[in-house]
Write a structure and sequence with these properties.
- This protein has about 120 residues and is mainly β.
- Helices cover about 0% and strands about 50% of the residues.
- The strands form 2 sheets. Strands 2, 4, 5, 6, 9, 10 and 11 form a 7-stranded mixed β-sheet that branches. Strands 1-3-8-7 form a 4-stranded antiparallel β-sheet, with no helix packed on it.
- A hairpin with a 4-residue loop joins strand 7 and strand 8 (about 80-85).
- The mean pLDDT is about 95.
Length: about 120
C-alpha cells in the first residue's frame, strides 16, 4: 500500500513560481510511474506530468510543457513539480498519483492518490 501526501500549494501572482512536493510512504517499486494531475472548479481532472520512477523519463501535457518540471528524489521517496511562469488558468487542485506498470496520462489507471493541494494564481 502506498500513501501519498502533497504539499507546497498556495497563492501566487501570475508569472510566479511554486514547487509542489509529494511524499510517498510504502514501497515504490522500480516499475512504478508517478504523475501530477489537476482539477479546476467545474472541469474534469487533467493530466499534467508524469515520470518513470526508476529511470526518470518525463512526460508533460502541452499546456505546461516548457513551464513545469517534474522530478523525483528516490532517496527521499518524494516527487516534485516545479511550476514556473504560472498563469491564472493553472489554478486548480493538484494531485499526485502512482501506478505500477509505467507511464500513463490516464488518471483511472493510477492506483494511489494523494489528497490534493490547492494552487491559486491570481493578482
Amino acid at each position: 500500500q502506498v500513501q501519498l501526501v502533497e504539499s507546497g500549494g498556495g497563492l501566487v501572482q501570475p508569472g510566479g513560481s511554486l514547487r509542489l512536493s509529494c511524499a510517498a510512504s510504502g514501497p515504490i517499486f522500480s516499475d512504478y510511474a508517478m504523475g501530477w494531475f489537476r482539477q479546476a472548479p467545474g472541469k474534469e481532472r487533467e493530466f499534467v506530468a508524469a515520470i518513470t520512477w526508476n529511470v526518470g523519463v518525463t512526460y508533460y501535457s502541452d499546456s505546461v510543457k516548457g513551464r513545469f518540471t517534474i522530478s523525483r528524489d528516490k532517496s527521499k521517496n518524494t516527487l516534485y513539480l516545479q511550476m514556473n511562469s504560472l498563469k491564472p488558468e493553472d489554478t486548480a487542485v493538484y494531485y499526485c498519483a502512482a501506478r505500477r506498470g509505467g507511464y500513463s496520462d490516464y488518471g483511472r489507471w493510477y492506483e494511489y492518490w494523494g489528497q490534493g493541494t490547492q494552487v491559486t494564481v491570481s493578482s
